[in-house]
Amino acid sequence: MKEFLKRKNIEISLRRYGIDALGAMAQGLFCSLLIGTIINTIGTQFKIPFLMQTVATIAGTEYTVGGLATAMSGPAMAVAIGYALKCPPLVLFSMITVGFAANALGGAGGPLAVLFVAILAAEFGKAVSKETKVDILVTPLVTIAVGVFFSWLIAPPLGRAAMWLGNLIMWATDLQPFLMGILVSVIVGMALTLPISSAAICAALGLTGLAGGAAVAGCCAQMIGFAAISFKENKWGGLVSQGIGTSMLQMGNIVRNPKIWIGPTLASAITGPIATCVFKLQMNGAPVSSGMGTCGLVGQIGVYTGWVNDVANGAKAGITGFDWLGLVLISFVLPAVFSLIINAGLKKIGWVKDSDLKL
């Protein structure tokens, strides 16, 4: 059995499923749901007719360009997961159907359902791939059959469980914005720096509202925090690669000296409750944006998209200067200031040296 699994490149491990597959799922969401949301926002804000008008009507549902991209989130996630699991072509292409079924049956918690179902379908498909003389029939049939069966069996309860947990976190954050602001900000921020996908976690839980705002704060604190405290060593290249790229670049240094993580993490514990209690920062765009921070400014675009949606549906009177002030301070200014102050103290007591942050 071990030889068979090795030959089929089936690796049952936390890294393969909890890091590789989860990270790929987030990329699939970026290329569908997130991009579709951004396209719709651009079309609405700049009054671009082509982006606002219906370009396709399917089963009575009208789709804009952005709407078409958003509708493909299930297949996009599944194919991305299949790619991360190194599926052969016939399995990979069959994942389109699997992703559509899992996302549709998973409801609002579709991303989590897609993660589990796509992994199962991919591994079964890989197991039978090229084992028969009629591979072109067997492999797609097995992959799709397994995917649709598990979509029917586990996608609805997984979707409900994900949304229950997400709603619980959001309810708790509304009820206790200070404490939950700290917890959500620190946990999601640390997940962003670790080699797992904070964006996929937020998407799977449907994390929006005040909890989404706290998540954005935590991610920004990690990215901008590391970019600021390592500027002396890494200069402008490091500032951009960490501040707009990812703080995950510091993982090697964190393993060597975990104390360098204290500054950005404590900064997130401070900015989280400031976001929830002072500025009432809410992330009501696509949930995946909650776990992105300043990566490509996706977190900030998500917050702005949420503002636009809230104004359109009457939940918000308008976008105020206080809103913009809060977004700028939480996203860029406060993470840098707090991280620099805390890290200076750590250097003074000898816990951190300049060379510890060199990329």
What is the string of SSEs from the N terminus onward? Answer: HHHEEHHHHHHHHHHHHH
Rounded to the nearest angstrom, the distance between the terminal CA atoms is 42 Å
The Cα radius of gyration reads: 22 Å
Please count the helical segments. 16
Oligomer: single chain
- Look at the structure and give the mean pLDDT: 93
Low-pLDDT parts are none
What summary fits the major beta sheet? 2 strands, antiparallel
SS-derived structural category: mainly alpha
Biggest sheet strand order reads 1-2
Shape: globular
Helix content: over 70%
Strand content: under 5%
Q: Count the strands? A: 2
How many structural domains can be distinguished in the coordinates?
Answer: 2
Topology:
Elements: H1 2-7, H2 14-45, H3 49-52, E1 56-58, E2 61-63, H4 65-71, H5 73-84, H6 89-106, H7 110-128, H8 135-175, H9 177-193, H10 198-205, H11 209-229, H12 231-245, H13 251-256, H14 262-278, H15 298-312, H16 321-348
Antiparallel strand pairs: 1-2
Helix pairs in contact: 2-4, 2-5, 2-10, 2-15, 5-6, 5-7, 6-7, 6-8, 7-8, 7-10, 8-9, 8-11, 9-10, 9-11, 9-14, 11-12, 11-14, 11-16, 14-16
Structure commentary:
The protein has about 350 residues and is mainly α. It has 2 domains: about 1-160, no CATH class; about 175-355, no CATH class. The protein has helices spanning about 1-5, 15-45, 50, 65-70, 75-85, 90-105, 110-130, 135-175, 175-195, 200-205, 210-230, 230-245, 250-255, 260-280, 300-310, 320-350, and strands at about 55-60, 60-65. The longest helix has about 40 residues, at about 135-175. The two termini are about 40 Å apart.
